[in-house]
Specification:
eight-stranded parallel beta barrel, 17% strand, alpha/beta, 11 helices
């Protein structure tokens, strides 16, 4: 099992060349070069050019590089997608996806992109919440491999209050994780807006981990360390996972559905979880 760690996925406005340059040396797992929310209308064309140049130049090391494009319903979306397809980042992030039809439309614009370029989608509209499973199922016939939660847009549409513990979003968050897992998608938690609130960020990261997210999208480099730490398996978790794998590998346990490991019951479902924990830990060490 080979996984790419996505504990910390940092948005960088593509209109800010200094930010792009800085991203090449940050300890984040992935960088999103943003052409959408973080870029003013009069800077859209320049941001697109700088994102393309950054992908061509490379230098991001083991970090994944994703371009978030503007929507197809905007004056910039078509040009963004054409540019992204031509340069071939690791993924293109589509905003405000409402259903499987939207996935197909973005996927079609990537028809001539390199095979390694995947499609990611923002889950940030009220409409998509009623089409989660069918939208995730579009991964069978497209480049779709990951979802990113957009909490700020969800609360804007619903009129809800966005708190650190996000009670108003528990249903969208948990249902999105469930739908993503049905179809093998990676899923990332939304951003935390508090730039000077590390305790709040850590609480929200831990909440995201408990919901089942693979990592968290971030808006500032000072948030990376906390996300990396929270979303990495602990040494105790890795040790127990290895013990579970080793125990089920014993000939005497080959036909058993449940066994005792270090004083705890472990079922076959725990073996699958253990294999994932070890794979994530090894991917982090190899990065």
């Amino acid at each position: 099992m080979t996984l790419r760690p996505r504990r910390s996925v940092l948005y960088m406005p593509a209109s800010n060349q200094k930010a792009i340059d800085k991203a090449r040396n940050l300890p984040c797992d992935a960088v999103i070069l943003d052409l959408e929310d973080a870029v003013a209308p009069d800077a859209k064309d320049m941001a697109r050019e700088q994102a393309v140049a950054a992908v061509k130049a490379g230098g991001f090391g083991r970090r994944e590089v994703i371009i978030r494009v503007n929507g197809l319903d905007t004056p910039w979306g078509e040009a963004d997608l054409a540019a992204a397809a031509s340069v071939g980042p690791d993924a293109v992030l589509a905003p405000k996806v409402n259903d499987a039809g939207d996935v197909a439309r973005y996927d079609a614009r990537l028809d001539h992109a390199p095979g390694h370029t995947k499609l990611w989608a923002m889950i940030e509209t009220c409409r998509v919440l009623f089409h989660l499973e069918s939208t995730a199922a579009a991964s069978r016939t497209s480049r779709l491999t990951a979802w990113v939660m957009g909490a700020n847009d969800l609360v804007k549409e619903t009129g809800a209050r966005l708190t650190t513990t996000r009670e108003a979003l528990w249903a969208p968050l948990s249902l999105s994780v469930a739908a993503a897992r049905i179809h093998g998608l990676s899923i990332l938690d939304g951003v935390f807006n508090g730039l000077d609130d590390p305790d709040g960020l850590e609480r929200q990261c831990r909440q995201g981990l408990e919901f089942g997210f693979d990592g968290k999208t971030l808006i500032h480099p000072n948030q990376v360390e906390i996300a990396n730490r929270v979303f990495a398996p602990t040494p105790d978790e890795v040790n127990f996972a290895r013990a579970v794998i080793a125990a089920f590998a014993l000939p005497d346990n080959a036909g058993k559905g449940a066994i005792r490991v270090d004083g705890k019951m472990a079922e076959r479902l725990h073996l699958v979880q253990a294999e994932r924990i070890v794979a994530v830990a090894e991917a982090i060490l190899a990065a």
